[in-house]
């Protein structure tokens, strides 16, 4: 049986649970602010609390792989369990791994996150296209076969990204626009939207690019990096309904209290819902 495409599953989750991607970013400073030690036990307690608080109500949970990898195999074991439990609770899991390589190495990354038999099998993964969009082919193909998604870095929220992403190629397009055009071609006329998404920072003010890729637009930078939900229409314009705002510390700082985490996530979800209502 052909699996349901990620784009369709994400659209349904956004329409029923609200358009929020909640990050799970166990920084050492955040663990300490929760009264936890910066060790595997603290990591496990932090992660379990996040999943318990949020996985049954937000559309997407996005664990940042690096914060688990720093603890080695024990940290990855925590991540594996979190992915399984979050998906069982109904959240889509977007693994924030930002992988990018070529050939068999890219295929191995794809197998890690997009093969249903992998312990880290996720609904989607972030990837970097700056070895050329074609280098992502193993991940794109694996995702399509498994009904998963791929979020491709396009216009990121860090200011350093502009030196590459805003550079121009021979036909006058920016590098970022070239990548966005590739994503649009991958998504084609998929309905309700394609499964190849772009990462576009909410801090940009004006994206200065055509974001009509017929796919989801992951928008980091809200909260700790200075952007708000009210900034989204100015950045994304007519593509606003495809936007999946990502909030990490803006929710996580309300832990370890489960009720506090849930209230923060609900408030963020309500904020984006209000923005969408004002810009139909």
From TrEMBL:
PROSITE patterns: OMPDECASE. Its EC number is 4.1.1.23. The active site is at 98 (proton donor). Residues 19-264 form the Orotidine 5'-phosphate decarboxylase domain. GO terms for biological process: 'de novo' pyrimidine nucleobase biosynthetic process; 'de novo' UMP biosynthetic process. The keyword Hydrolase does not apply. InterPro entries: Aldolase_TIM, OMPdecase_AS, OMPdecase_type-2, OMPdeCOase_dom, RibuloseP-bd_barrel. The keyword Lyase applies. Pathway: Pyrimidine metabolism; UMP biosynthesis via de novo pathway; UMP from orotate: step 2/2. One of its GO terms (molecular function) is orotidine-5'-phosphate decarboxylase activity. It catalyses: orotidine 5'-phosphate + H(+) = UMP + CO2. Keywords: Decarboxylase, Lyase, Pyrimidine biosynthesis. Belongs to the OMP decarboxylase family. Type 2 subfamily. NCBIfam families: pyrF_sub2. HAMAP family: OMPdecase_type2 (MF_01215). This is Orotidine 5'-phosphate decarboxylase. It comes from Streptomyces tsukubensis. The gene is pyrF.
């Amino acid at each position: 049986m052909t699996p349901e495409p990620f784009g369709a599953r994400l659209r349904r989750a956004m329409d029923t649970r609200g358009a929020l991607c909640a990050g799970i970013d166990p920084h050492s400073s955040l663990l300490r602010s929760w009264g936890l030690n910066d060790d595997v036990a603290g990591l496990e307690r932090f992660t379990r609390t996040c999943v318990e608080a949020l996985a049954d109500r937000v559309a997407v949970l996005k664990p940042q792989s690096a914060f688990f990898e720093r603890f080695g195999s024990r940290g990855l074991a925590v991540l594996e369990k979190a992915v399984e439990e979050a998906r069982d609770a109904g959240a889509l899991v977007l693994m924030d791994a930002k992988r990018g390589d070529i050939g068999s190495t890219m295929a191995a990354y794809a197998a890690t996150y997009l093969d249903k038999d992998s312990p880290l099998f996720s609904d989607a993964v972030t990837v970097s296209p700056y070895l050329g969009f074609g280098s992502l082919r193993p991940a794109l193909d694996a995702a399509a076969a498994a009904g998963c998604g791929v979020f491709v870095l396009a216009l990121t929220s860090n200011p350093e990204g502009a030196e590459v992403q805003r550079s121009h190629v021979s036909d006058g397009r920016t590098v970022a626009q070239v990548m966005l055009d590739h994503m649009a071609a991958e998504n084609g006329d998929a309905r309700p939207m394609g499964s190849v998404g772009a990462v576009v920072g909410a801090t940009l003010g004006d994206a200065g690019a055509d974001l009509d890729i017929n796919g989801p637009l992951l928008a980091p930078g809200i909260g700790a990096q200075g952007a708000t939900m009210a900034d989204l229409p100015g950045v994304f314009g007519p593509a606003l309904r495809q936007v999946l705002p990502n909030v990490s510390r803006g929710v996580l700082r309300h832990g370890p209290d489960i009720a506090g985490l849930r209230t923060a996530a609900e408030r963020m979800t309500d904020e984006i819902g209000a923005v969408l209502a004002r810009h139909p």
